[in-house]
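Q: Is it fine to ask for two folds in a single conversation?
A: Yes, each is treated on its own. Send the first.
Q: Here.
A: Result:
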Amino acid sequence: MQRHYVAMNCTDLGPGCSVEDTIYGYEPNLGLNAFFVAIFALFALIHTPLFIRYKTWCYGITIALGCIGEAIGYGGRIIMHSNPVSSYSFTTLRPSTILPLPEEHKSILALLTPEISKH
Protein backbone atom coordinates (compact mmCIF):
# COMPACT_ATOMS: atom_id res chain seq x y z
CA MET A 1 0.00 0.00 0.00
CA GLN A 2 1.34 3.39 -0.96
CA ARG A 3 1.91 5.97 1.79
CA HIS A 4 -0.02 9.23 1.67
CA TYR A 5 1.87 12.40 2.55
CA VAL A 6 0.14 15.68 3.34
CA ALA A 7 1.78 18.96 2.34
CA MET A 8 1.40 21.06 5.50
CA ASN A 9 2.63 24.29 3.90
CA CYS A 10 -0.14 24.45 1.26
CA THR A 11 -2.73 27.19 1.66
CA ASP A 12 -4.35 26.91 -1.77
CA LEU A 13 -4.30 24.52 -4.71
CA GLY A 14 -1.81 25.38 -7.39
CA PRO A 15 1.68 24.50 -8.57
CA GLY A 16 3.31 22.31 -5.97
CA CYS A 17 0.04 21.78 -4.06
CA SER A 18 -2.25 19.26 -5.71
CA VAL A 19 -5.45 17.67 -4.42
CA GLU A 20 -3.44 14.51 -3.71
CA ASP A 21 -1.39 16.50 -1.13
CA THR A 22 -4.47 17.40 0.97
CA ILE A 23 -5.74 15.68 4.11
CA TYR A 24 -8.04 13.29 2.24
CA GLY A 25 -5.99 12.97 -0.91
CA TYR A 26 -9.06 13.74 -3.00
CA GLU A 27 -11.70 16.43 -3.36
CA PRO A 28 -14.78 15.59 -1.24
CA ASN A 29 -17.93 15.02 -3.26
CA LEU A 30 -20.25 18.02 -2.87
CA GLY A 31 -23.49 16.24 -3.79
CA LEU A 32 -22.98 13.23 -1.53
CA ASN A 33 -21.94 15.34 1.46
CA ALA A 34 -24.90 17.70 0.95
CA PHE A 35 -27.14 14.61 0.88
CA PHE A 36 -25.72 13.44 4.22
CA VAL A 37 -26.16 16.90 5.77
CA ALA A 38 -29.81 16.89 4.69
CA ILE A 39 -30.45 13.31 5.86
CA PHE A 40 -28.90 13.80 9.31
CA ALA A 41 -30.67 17.15 9.77
CA LEU A 42 -33.95 15.49 8.76
CA PHE A 43 -33.37 12.63 11.22
CA ALA A 44 -32.72 15.15 14.00
CA LEU A 45 -35.97 16.94 13.14
CA ILE A 46 -37.88 13.66 13.07
CA HIS A 47 -36.46 12.36 16.36
CA THR A 48 -37.07 15.55 18.33
CA PRO A 49 -40.90 15.45 18.41
CA LEU A 50 -40.82 11.67 18.81
CA PHE A 51 -38.69 11.67 21.95
CA ILE A 52 -40.82 14.47 23.39
CA ARG A 53 -44.06 12.60 22.63
CA TYR A 54 -42.87 9.23 23.95
CA LYS A 55 -40.82 10.74 26.80
CA THR A 56 -37.61 8.94 25.88
CA TRP A 57 -35.46 11.90 26.92
CA CYS A 58 -32.03 10.34 27.26
CA TYR A 59 -32.25 8.23 24.13
CA GLY A 60 -33.94 10.94 22.07
CA ILE A 61 -31.59 13.75 23.03
CA THR A 62 -28.59 11.49 22.40
CA ILE A 63 -29.82 10.52 18.95
CA ALA A 64 -30.79 14.11 18.02
CA LEU A 65 -27.42 15.51 19.16
CA GLY A 66 -25.61 12.76 17.28
CA CYS A 67 -27.51 13.60 14.08
CA ILE A 68 -26.79 17.32 14.51
CA GLY A 69 -23.10 16.57 15.05
CA GLU A 70 -22.98 14.41 11.95
CA ALA A 71 -24.65 17.16 9.89
CA ILE A 72 -22.09 19.72 11.11
CA GLY A 73 -19.24 17.34 10.32
CA TYR A 74 -20.46 16.73 6.79
CA GLY A 75 -20.82 20.50 6.48
CA GLY A 76 -17.09 20.67 7.10
CA ARG A 77 -16.55 18.30 4.19
CA ILE A 78 -18.68 20.62 2.02
CA ILE A 79 -16.34 23.47 2.98
CA MET A 80 -13.40 21.26 2.02
CA HIS A 81 -14.97 20.68 -1.40
CA SER A 82 -14.42 24.32 -2.33
CA ASN A 83 -11.03 24.50 -0.58
CA PRO A 84 -9.50 21.06 0.06
CA VAL A 85 -6.55 22.57 1.94
CA SER A 86 -8.81 24.39 4.42
CA SER A 87 -7.37 23.76 7.86
CA TYR A 88 -10.47 25.17 9.59
CA SER A 89 -12.93 22.61 8.28
CA PHE A 90 -10.68 19.65 9.02
CA THR A 91 -9.10 20.66 12.31
CA THR A 92 -12.23 22.20 13.84
CA LEU A 93 -15.41 20.75 12.36
CA ARG A 94 -14.43 17.22 11.42
CA PRO A 95 -12.78 15.88 14.59
CA SER A 96 -15.18 17.66 16.92
CA THR A 97 -18.31 16.28 15.29
CA ILE A 98 -18.18 13.24 13.04
CA LEU A 99 -15.54 11.28 14.90
CA PRO A 100 -16.31 11.53 18.64
CA LEU A 101 -20.04 12.30 18.83
CA PRO A 102 -21.46 8.92 17.82
CA GLU A 103 -18.99 7.12 20.09
CA GLU A 104 -19.73 9.37 23.04
CA HIS A 105 -23.47 8.98 22.56
CA LYS A 106 -23.20 5.20 22.30
CA SER A 107 -21.22 5.17 25.55
CA ILE A 108 -23.83 7.33 27.30
CA LEU A 109 -26.59 5.04 26.10
CA ALA A 110 -24.68 1.93 27.19
CA LEU A 111 -24.18 3.39 30.66
CA LEU A 112 -27.76 4.58 31.10
CA THR A 113 -29.66 1.71 29.47
CA PRO A 114 -29.51 -0.62 32.51
CA GLU A 115 -30.69 2.23 34.74
CA ILE A 116 -33.54 3.12 32.41
CA SER A 117 -34.71 -0.49 32.04
CA LYS A 118 -35.08 -0.86 35.83
CA HIS A 119 -37.95 1.66 35.91
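Q: Second one now.
A: Result:
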Amino acid sequence: MPVRKFRSVADMPGAQPRTPLDPENLRLACSLTQFAYWLHPMKHIPGVRKYRSVEEAWQARKEWVRSQLVDRLPVRRIAGLTDSHVAA
Protein backbone atom coordinates (compact mmCIF):
# COMPACT_ATOMS: atom_id res chain seq x y z
CA MET A 1 0.00 0.00 0.00
CA PRO A 2 1.60 3.30 -1.03
CA VAL A 3 2.05 6.10 1.49
CA ARG A 4 0.22 9.32 0.64
CA LYS A 5 1.35 12.66 2.06
CA PHE A 6 -0.84 15.72 2.49
CA ARG A 7 0.22 19.31 3.05
CA SER A 8 -2.68 19.97 5.42
CA VAL A 9 -5.61 18.18 7.00
CA ALA A 10 -7.95 20.01 4.64
CA ASP A 11 -6.35 18.13 1.71
CA MET A 12 -7.07 14.74 3.29
CA PRO A 13 -10.15 12.82 2.17
CA GLY A 14 -12.95 12.63 4.73
CA ALA A 15 -14.42 9.52 6.26
CA GLN A 16 -16.79 7.54 4.11
CA PRO A 17 -20.44 8.12 5.10
CA ARG A 18 -22.11 5.14 6.77
CA THR A 19 -25.57 3.94 5.80
CA PRO A 20 -28.14 4.48 8.56
CA LEU A 21 -29.54 1.38 10.29
CA ASP A 22 -26.74 -0.80 8.93
CA PRO A 23 -25.99 -3.68 11.37
CA GLU A 24 -22.29 -3.08 10.74
CA ASN A 25 -22.64 0.31 12.49
CA LEU A 26 -23.55 -1.39 15.77
CA ARG A 27 -20.60 -3.77 15.48
CA LEU A 28 -18.28 -0.83 14.81
CA ALA A 29 -19.68 1.15 17.77
CA CYS A 30 -19.23 -1.85 20.09
CA SER A 31 -15.67 -2.44 18.96
CA LEU A 32 -14.80 1.26 19.41
CA THR A 33 -16.29 1.19 22.91
CA GLN A 34 -14.30 -1.91 23.76
CA PHE A 35 -11.12 -0.30 22.41
CA ALA A 36 -11.74 2.88 24.43
CA TYR A 37 -12.22 0.82 27.60
CA TRP A 38 -9.03 -1.09 26.82
CA LEU A 39 -7.14 2.21 26.52
CA HIS A 40 -8.46 3.51 29.84
CA PRO A 41 -10.49 1.13 31.99
CA MET A 42 -12.71 3.01 34.44
CA LYS A 43 -12.86 1.71 37.98
CA HIS A 44 -16.39 1.84 39.34
CA ILE A 45 -16.92 1.06 42.99
CA PRO A 46 -20.22 -0.79 43.34
CA GLY A 47 -22.89 0.55 45.62
CA VAL A 48 -25.16 3.51 46.17
CA ARG A 49 -23.90 6.78 47.59
CA LYS A 50 -26.06 9.40 49.25
CA TYR A 51 -25.17 13.07 49.36
CA ARG A 52 -26.67 15.91 51.37
CA SER A 53 -26.55 18.36 48.47
CA VAL A 54 -25.97 18.57 44.75
CA GLU A 55 -22.71 20.42 45.40
CA GLU A 56 -21.45 17.55 47.57
CA ALA A 57 -22.35 15.08 44.80
CA TRP A 58 -20.51 17.18 42.20
CA GLN A 59 -17.47 17.40 44.47
CA ALA A 60 -17.46 13.61 44.87
CA ARG A 61 -17.70 13.26 41.08
CA LYS A 62 -14.76 15.62 40.56
CA GLU A 63 -12.68 13.64 43.06
CA TRP A 64 -13.59 10.39 41.30
CA VAL A 65 -12.56 11.82 37.91
CA ARG A 66 -9.30 13.09 39.43
CA SER A 67 -8.59 9.65 40.90
CA GLN A 68 -9.17 8.05 37.48
CA LEU A 69 -6.67 10.44 35.90
CA VAL A 70 -4.09 10.09 38.68
CA ASP A 71 -4.08 6.33 38.15
CA ARG A 72 -2.88 7.03 34.61
CA LEU A 73 -0.06 9.37 35.75
CA PRO A 74 2.76 7.85 33.62
CA VAL A 75 0.61 8.15 30.49
CA ARG A 76 -0.22 11.75 31.40
CA ARG A 77 3.49 12.58 31.72
CA ILE A 78 4.20 11.11 28.30
CA ALA A 79 1.30 13.09 26.83
CA GLY A 80 2.63 16.28 28.44
CA LEU A 81 -0.36 16.75 30.75
CA THR A 82 -0.02 18.28 34.20
CA ASP A 83 -2.30 18.65 37.19
CA SER A 84 -3.60 21.91 35.72
CA HIS A 85 -5.29 19.80 32.99
CA VAL A 86 -7.29 17.88 35.60
CA ALA A 87 -10.70 19.30 36.41
CA ALA A 88 -10.46 21.08 39.76
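Q: Anything structural to flag on that second result?
A: Two points. Residues 23-39 form the longest helix (17 residues). The chain is about 45% helix and 0% strand.
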